[in-house]
Amino acid sequence: MRLAFILGEIGSGLRRNLSMLISVILVTFISLTFVGAAGLLQLQINQMKGFWYDKVQVAVFLCVDTSTAASCASGPVTDEQRSEIEATLKSPAVAQYVSSYHFESQADALEHFREQFANSPIVDSVTADQLPESFRVSLVDPQKYEVINEVFSSLPGVEVVVDQREVLERVFSVMNIASLVAVGIAAVMIVCAILLIATTIRLSAFSRRRETGIMRLVGASKVVIQLPFILEGVIAAVIGAALASLVLWAVARFFIGGWLAEQYPGTAFISDGAVLLIAPGLLLLGALLAGISSLLTLRRYLKV
Q: For the whole model, what pTM was predicted?
């Protein structure tokens, strides 16, 4: 009987405050979507770090006619200088740090440039002689970049030594900033959701003040009186969290795992299974926010 009564009160409260209930669901849905998006973005960053850091290379760019570096003052790299650079790569002092390497000619560099910038208007204006030759070096330990830099940056014919991790770190920094922005927006929306839940529970308690008074007179416990109001907020928040989880799953399944994976097949993307790691947290967060907000509101406005 007590369970049936509580369920009846919950249904009555939801019907009376349907518009506010929908508002709570929508605000919770939006706020938790941003929270989940920030979580997915962090998972994607970690996935890409693990994928790319194993493939990162050090590029030893050689001098060309258009080089402006001081080390290229004598002109483009000569065959003797190129041979000396390769011999240094094979020397015992350096070979212990090198996992593998390959030489990229100007023609190879142009081909890769055209692949990377296929949709750019400048792609047809770049010629092979404008792009430098390079040795692409994979290290046993990517942290040992400075060893390679010190050895090769001073060799004749070398324009610059570039650690590709620096480029990746800049990309990951931008993604981290985007994640923080999503968290900031989510925090603002969560505050809005808490205030809206509190207002909804307050209005619900006010509209049922006569029933509440009767329940007090017949000796109903505090839990029985307050529980329907709390569960109303929790149900609305959980529905919003479930919708947020569903949208995140659709994004991971069809946008990330579908379109992005097809456009960039050489990149490691998270799967839709990653949402399963985040969804329980979103549901729990929504329930806790609604439950705590409702409880604090009832303590202030509903005297039992």
A: 0.69
